[in-house]
Amino acid sequence: MRVEYINPFVEATFSILKEVLDTEVKRGDLYLKSSSMSIQGVAALVGLAGDVEGRVLFDMTKPTALFVAGAMNGGEVFTTMDEMAKATIQELANMITARAVTQLADLGFKFDLTPPALFTGENMEVSNNLKVEALIVPMDLGVNGAKGRIDVNVAIRERI
Fold this sequence. Notes:
Blueprint: H1 3-21, E1 25-27, E2 31-33, E3 37-38, E4 42-50, E5 52-60, H2 62-72, H3 83-106, E6 111-113, E7 117-120, E8 125-126, E9 134-141, E10 149-158
Antiparallel strand pairs: 1-9, 2-9, 3-8, 4-5, 4-6, 4-7, 5-10, 9-10
Helix pairs in contact: 1-3, 2-3
């Protein structure tokens, strides 16, 4: 996986989270994952097609998703993943991927995006059948991650 594909997603995630959550955001250590992996409880998935193919997954716990939904809706308190909370997480995924794809387009890459699909529940796994390792970029929210963590899971390869 080329770093030119990854950096725009990392930069877009960092800047969008800082803008919309009004909290400290700290990037954790990157790591690679080659097989299937467990989802924390709430995940927004955006598919990519064009010069490259793959997906970006925004993975978080339910409490983190509820915090994000509240912060993005003027401080409203969410206690369940209702339709507004779900739509808010999908909009966050839209905002991040749109900014990243715009940066990639400026570099000459062309992409089409799928609308974000949202998955909620326990004991879920995402499988990577692209024959490329997924790069995981943890983003800690709040001081020392006190408001949770969003893992940006990017699996992209050049179209064969």
